[in-house]
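ok so for the tutorial part 2 we go from a plain amino acid sequence to predicted structure tokens. step 1 is just haveing the sequence, like this:
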Amino acid sequence: MKYDDPRLRDLLAGEYVMATLPRRARSRFERLMAADPALARLVAEWQERLAPLDAAAAPVEPPAEIWRAVERAIGPSPAAVRPVAAREGWWERLALWRGLAFGALAAAAALLLYVAVPRPVPPAAAILAVLTDASGAPSFVATRQPDGGIAVAAIRAQPLAADRAFELWAIAGGPPRSLGLVGRTAGQGLVLPQGALPRDGVLAVSLEPAGGSPTGAPTGPVLYQGKILPADS
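step 2 — the prediction. this is what the tokens look like for a chain of 233 residues:
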């Protein structure tokens, strides 16, 4: 495999950050990254790019049955464990440590099972649109929030002059409709109320004067755009 291919390196870096590489491929990639600073920087760029998606996911409390399984596997608290008497031989002590080791392994297995079993995606993690630049690189993302509202934020910092602004537009079978100004900094979101987006169509970000378009329609170039995904996707 030619690891000097830029497209392959970018693809592998993205899969590494998203943890989709198989175990052996991941280990091989980590060895390559340790000897290749440029590859490590590429991974860091992917981590920064996907950070808003990670931040958009609400924390999920493990179900009560998972905690009960962990408690059963671990056994009683240390205070309740009977001290090992001096007269007990090495076999009894070995049995005790084997039991503790087995409990720890069982607890780890229970937690691993919880992580591995697919769970419903929290509403905050629902992606409504990904806006890309002219090269196809993801630049802004729209996500549904727990209260049903919508947040639109840059995936990574975007270049923007001090006297310019990014304005978000919804386009759905008619003239573009302004949704407001969106920040250039990663995670600096524009929060929209529930129902602000059309059911289908396109979201676009244009370059406008500071304060937004003076005409109510895009006056500068459209730099980023993306299709609005179906509500059940």
